[in-house]
Design a protein that fits this description.
By secondary structure, the chain is mostly helical. It has 6 helices and no strands. Helix 2 packs parallel to helix 4 and helix 3 crosses helix 4. It starts with a helix and ends with a helix.
Length: 123
């Protein structure tokens, strides 16, 4: 049974086409990153399942699951930090750099990390 059969058609999906699996592009990117990092051997699926499970079981998790990929990303960041691949401070600094780059990029132009006014300080 497809999602369409289980949930009925959605307003933004043409007849015969399932609704998108990811609500936002960043969710698909987080998913793909997790698969790629697992494929490179950075963690096992058991480790991943444990990290994700711990996140979605937190009392702050939304009952309707709308924040699932936020927990997915938190699990990935936590797992990589615990293994020494990416410290939380480094991840946070890079996220801030991308945010600054987005704000400094003219509309319609690609967002590049080099557009961050503080780019040299985050390298």
């Amino acid at each position: 049974m497809s999602r369409r059969e289980a949930n009925g058609p959605t307003a933004d999906s043409p007849e015969g086409v399932d609704a998108p699996v990811f609500a936002e592009p960043w969710q698909a990117e987080a998913f793909a990153m997790t698969v790629a990092l697992h494929d490179k051997g950075l963690f096992s699926w058991a480790e991943w399942a444990q990290a994700l499970s711990a996140q979605v079981k937190k009392p702050s998790a939304a009952a309707d699951g709308h924040d699932y990929y936020e927990h997915w990303l938190a699990a990935l960041e936590g797992l990589l930090a615990s293994k020494g691949f990416a410290a939380k401070a480094d991840v946070d600094a890079m996220a801030e750099a991308w945010e600054r780059a987005a704000h400094a990029t003219p509309h319609g132009k690609p967002i590049l990390l080099e557009n961050d006014p503080e780019f040299e300080s985050v390298r």
